[in-house]
């Protein structure tokens, strides 16, 4: 076994603990002189000196006794069996010392056994076996070992999922930066450069064990956090369903008014039609009344159909598996054609790229555009007398998302209403003019497309509705919240 360069460092430390000094004088090819200086004790000249007692030999029951006994039986010419090396100490944390130098291993074991349980190995293969069997908290691993060297051992241990939190400190005489970087790349947490002091060893070990404890606590907290998040998701789903059910109570008053009115005049119209049909002949005036009645019936039934359709969309969103690739420009064109009668005499500014594509339900996305553009039409028509009504629709690509903005120069939205406009059944219109489901349905549809709908407005001047949809909706979470701002 070659020397490890620790001998003189130990001598110096021992002499320093005796309040002494060690000095050296040397001349190349002529000789070397080491001088030890120790302070004399104060002695009474008349007192007799007692014989110096021989140091006590540790009893076999003490932890260090087995280690010293084992060290006395090392045979340099024979390989060392790591299985015969004793486990020393009974500390709460466990450390594995892997070093083929008996003096170095004995020095480290004696230093650490007072606070830790210390395992020993004399080569890389034995170190791997003991690490896998005992799962220590930390390994002091020599770089230069017979068989597998330290970096190989480090790489093998890091590949074991059961040992991924194990702390590894490499012992090395290499001081160049490339070697240190290589050691860290192979999975070492730290390294000690020989020669080193006991204080440095203990300090680095304490630092790594503190880090290990923090990692374990963090892992435990992460497990608890994941469990809590799962419970919150389940609770959220239940609350959403509960809110939908509870919303039916809030819906009842407006729903009764919205449904009963068209039903009442539809039933009245039908009664009138039935009475008229009993007559044998119809005058021209009577025929016109029948035509008007049929128009009333059709209008009433269409209103009922729309209410039922809106409620169905709100309660039963379309499944993600039915979503397809959609060109934004074609969806906008379709919505504008359907709303042509509402958009008459309104200046339209369309800035949508023909190549802009989203993934969604054509029916539901058209529904969103119809609601938003129709709302803009009503807003600009209310200020038509003061300025030219303008609706602007444009899109842009940003941060892997597609943004679609619908802007108008209409009446705007009051700041106190901005945070409520997406609530179900919230409306500022008169009773019978709508039941406040339009924007709530838009919010639900956009959210189920993994997107966000937001609103910005300045009262009396303009309103902007922006839809953000991910280009890769599968990777986007549902938990994104609406951004509502008021100028």
Give structural notes.
α2 runs antiparallel to α3 and α8 packs across α12. This protein has a 5-stranded parallel β-sheet with strand order 4-3-5-6-7, sandwiched between helices. It has 12 helices and 14 strands. The longest helix has 80 residues, at 198-277. 45% of the residues lie in helices and 18% in strands. It has helices at 7-17, 63-72, 102-112, 124-134, 150-158, 177-185, 198-277, 284-315, 328-338, 362-381, 415-418, 438-448, and strands at residues 21-27, 31-37, 93-98, 116-121, 138-142, 167-172, 190-193, 324-327, 347-351, 357-360, 390-398, 401-408, 452-458, 462-470. It is α/β, with parallel strands linked by helices.
Which key features would you list for this structure?
five-stranded mixed β-sheet; 487 residues; 18% strand; 45% helix; alpha/beta; 14 strands
Please write out the topology.
Elements: H1 7-17, E1 21-27, E2 31-37, H2 63-72, E3 93-98, H3 102-112, E4 116-121, H4 124-134, E5 138-142, H5 150-158, E6 167-172, H6 177-185, E7 190-193, H7 198-277, H8 284-315, E8 324-327, H9 328-338, E9 347-351, E10 357-360, H10 362-381, E11 390-398, E12 401-408, H11 415-418, H12 438-448, E13 452-458, E14 462-470
Parallel strand pairs: 3-4, 3-5, 5-6, 6-7, 9-11
Antiparallel strand pairs: 1-2, 8-10, 11-12, 12-14, 13-14
